[in-house]
Amino acid sequence: NGKFSRKYGVYRGNNISFGALYSFLLQPNEPIEITVIRAFGRNGHESLLTAEQARKESTESIILKTSERIMQWIQSGNVPNTIKGDALDLYYKSLLVLKNAQNPVVGTISSSFHVLYGYKNWMRDALMSAFMLDSAGHHDEFRLFMDWAAEYATLDDKGGFHTTYSPIDGSFGGFVEPQYDANGLYLMAMN
Question: What is the pTM of this model?
Answer without folding.
Answer: 0.74
